[in-house]
Amino acid sequence: MACVLFADDDPDIRELAGLLLGHRGHEVVTAADGDEAIALLSGMTPDLVITDLNMPRQDGHAVCAAVRARPDLRDIPLVLLTALPLDDQRVLRASAESSAVPVAKTDISSLADLADGLVSGAAGVIGRPSTAQSRTVA
To answer: For the whole model, what pTM was predicted?
Structure first.
C-alpha cells in the first residue's frame, strides 16, 4: 500500500507499529532515533513519516523539518507520536511548524487507521500540510 518511515527510540513501540502498519499492507522502514531517520530519508521517498517527538540525538521535530526541507516530500503527511500531553507547548510548536498530526502514544492502536486515511488522502482526515490540527486518535 504505502511506504512508511517510522522513527521511535523504544524498540517495543517500533515493533508494535511495524505489526499494526504491516498488517494493513504498508511497507514499514524503522529508525531508532532522529539521526537514523534523517539518514534513511536520503535514500527513500516515503508516503508517510511517523516519528516520536522525544528521541535521543535528533528529535521528531528535526525529522519533520528534514522532511519539509525536501521539495519532493514537502506535501507528505507527518505524524508526531508523543507521550507528552497533546496541549504541551513542545507538541503544539512542532506540529504547527511542520503541519504534523500529533498523536498520543496511548492511542497507538489506532495508528493504522490514521495512516490509511492519511496516505489515501481521505476527506476529513487531518494531517496534510495545509490542514494539520492537534487531536487524539479515537
So the answer is: 0.86
Distance of CA 46 to the CA centre of its chain: 11
Give residue-wise pLDDT tens across range 9-68. Answer: 999 999 999 999 999 999 999 999 999 999 999 999 999 999 999 999 999 999 999 999
Query: SS3 for the chain, per residue?
Result: CCEEEEECCCHHHHHHHHHHHHHCCCEEEEECCHHHHHHHHCCCCCCEEEEECCCCCCCHHHHHHHHHHCCCCCCCCEEEEECCCCCCHHHHHHHHHHCCEEEEHHHHHHHHHHHHHHHHCCCCCCCCCCCCCCCCCC
Q: Tens of pLDDT along 103-115?
A: 999 999 999 999 9
CA torsion 104→130→95→87, rounded to 10°? Answer: -60
Q: ∠ at Cα 31 (25, 34), nearest 5°? A: 135
- The yes or no reply on domain 3-120 and CATH 3.90.180.10 is no
58 grid coordinates: 535528533
